[in-house]
Amino acid sequence: MASISLSFSSSLLPSPISQDKFKIHHIPDSITYNPSLRVIRCATAPPSSKRTSSSSPSSSPSSSVAKKRHWKVGEFPGVSETSLPGSQRRVPIKNVKKKLDRKVKAKAWVNTVTECLADKIDKKQWLQALEVFEMLREQPFYQPKEGTYMKLIVLLGRCGQPQRAHQLFNTMVEEGCQPTSELYTALLAAYCRNNLIDEAFSTLNEMKHLPLCQPDVFTYSILIKACVDALKFDLVELLHEEMAERSITPNTVTQNIVLSGYGKAGNYDQMEKVLLNMLDSTTCKPDVWTMNTIISVFGNKGQVDMMERWYEKFRNFGIEPETRTFNILIGAYGKKRMYDKMSSVMEYMRKLQFPWTTSTYNNVIEAFAAVGDAKHMEYTFDQMRAEGMKADTKTFCCLINGYANAGLFHKVISSVNLAKRFEIPENVSFYNAIISACARAEDLIEMERVFNWMKDNLCQPDDTTYSVMIEAYRKEGMRDKIYYLEQEMQMISDDKVNKLMNEIHFVPT
Q1: Helix/strand/coil for 498
Q2: Is 57 helix (H, G, I), strand (E, B) or coil?
Q3: How many whole angstroms separate alpha carbon 382 and alpha carbon 29?
Q4: Could you tell me if 446 and 8 are in contact, meaning their C-beta atoms sit under 8 angstroms apart?
Q5: What is the per-residue pLDDT for 177?
Q6: Would you say 288 and 311 are in contact if contact means Cβ atoms under 8 Å apart?
Q7: End-to-end Cα separation, the chain, in angstroms
Q8: Three-state secondary structure along 261-279?
Q9: Are 425 and 457 in contact (CB under 8 A)?
Q10: CB burial class (10 A; 0-12, 13-18, 19+) of residue 48?
Q11: Low complexity compositional bias: what residue ranges (predicted)?
């Protein structure tokens, strides 16, 4: 993967992110691993037969009785191999040790490469993961399993590569691995994550025609979420009707998704109606995720009073908060610059022994980044590192946005270099943050370089990418650049339509 290096033409020399301003003494719980003892049983040979006492040591060899020996597998008892005809002689195995060593090395090589594949998947490095997987598939002794395909399809969906997930799925089928409901659901989820709702419905129709791959409540829940995010509530109703026809009962997860959709659309009457139905239901009672969903809806809209009111209502229902609940509160208070309440929630978490997570720190960093408060943003990041908390892609997106808002563009470079050193996964949001920083710095040459790196790393630009770049070109009156970007967007849209038509053509009827 091509590495990113920035050099703003309008910036000073790159300077690293400031060192720890303060540290919190954090003593992690010690974990002692006591390996279990293994008892190795050795097979003992039976006692050898006693020697015949009729012969004496002084007797001649011809009169002595030969010893009986325990013959090994493959040997010829009582007969000398040299006395046998050539056709009956056993061909000696040559270089036995070398062959055994090769076998051991091959097994070790497989273990090493599969561990490397698992590591790339964990780090969300989808391109390297596919390269390692192709290397493994070329080996005659390696047979990919369903779980490996599942992990790769999920990874490609999360990394914005739904078409590659579809290609991998087809490769799996061609190689004789039977698809399952879970694998089809993973492919459908890859489409849904990337707002390809039509492709997701095509996958659902394909599942319904395969007896062993029938959709279940999880399949429908994922598709309902995609429709809810796209505010296509007419499709949500159709999916609910289809679930009823197939005797699939919505669970709490499904209802939480619908709650979130109505909340994002501002349809609070429908949201409250769904919630009341959940309270009366015996199969999908509200849970802490329901609580998180509703307070998140009001928190994201900046309606702090409603958020606090619903928080108290759920507490009265007997639902206890969790770490994610407090993180939602912290994020909402941070966006409204209510730093006192934000700090109070964090202290309350400490008091109740709820751990601060990466999301906790990200919410605080994002709050300071939004107002360009680089000083407090750095303090929070330093404290995060001091406590051994692992930063993720969102952490660095917030840092880059924060430095750009503060006009510290040379520290944007430091953040990108640090992300590279930490092997942070580079997704669309990461590149968009850098492109936006370049646009703020009015360094359009660097902006174009990052845009090209983004495409070289097979990361598909989204609407945000194009809108930021078009606005930057519009400020400079570069109409030719705007024209080319608009043409590129149109080509991408046409490609999606063509792929959709091809997939619909091959869906079994």
Answers
A1: helix
A2: coil
A3: 21
A4: yes
A5: 87
A6: no
A7: 41
A8: HHHHCCCHHHHHHHHHHHH
A9: no
A10: exposed
A11: 46-64
Q: What is the pLDDT of residues 149-201, one digit of tens each?
A: 999 999 999 998 999 999 999 999 998 888 999 999 999 999 999 989 999 99
Count of residues in the chain: 509
Please tell me the distance from the alpha carbon of residue 267 to that of residue 254, in angstroms, as a whole number: 17
Q: How far apart are CA 340 and CA 201, in angstroms?
A: 47
pLDDT of the residue at 434: 97
In angstroms, rounded to a whole number, what is the distance separating the alpha carbons of residues 362 and 435? 21
| Residue among 244, 245, 243 nearest 221 (CA) | 243
Q: Give the list of residues 6+ apart from residue 371 with CB closer than 8 angstroms, or none.
A: 337, 405
**DSSP states along 18-32:** P--S------PPP--
d(CA 270, CA 255): 12
Neighbours of 68 (CB within 10 A): 13
Q: What is the pLDDT of residues 391-440, one digit of tens each?
A: 999 999 999 999 999 999 999 999 999 999 999 999 999 999 999 999 99
Per the structure block, which two tokens stand in for 372?
Answer: 């360009």
d(CA 80, CA 272): 92
Instruction: Kindly report which listed range (77-86, 199-208, 281-290) carries the lowest average pLDDT score.
Output: 77-86
Handedness of CA 79, 80, 86, 87 (dihedral sign): positive
User: Rounded to two decimals, what is the model's pTM?
Assistant: 0.65
pLDDT(107) > 80: no
- Alpha carbons 77 and 69: distance in angstroms, whole number: 8
How is residue 191 written in tokens?
A: 């489409």
Tokens representing 292 are 């998180």
Distance in angstroms (rounded) separating the CA atoms of residues 483 and 505: 33
CB atoms closer than 10 angstroms to residue 60: 7
pLDDT in tens, 376-386: 999 999 999 99
Look up residue 410 and give its two tokens. Answer: 């040379």
Q: What are phi and psi of 257, to 5 degrees?
A: -65, -45
pLDDT at residue 287 is higher than 60: yes
Going by C-alpha positions, the residue among 301, 318, 324, 299 that lies closest to residue 309 is 299
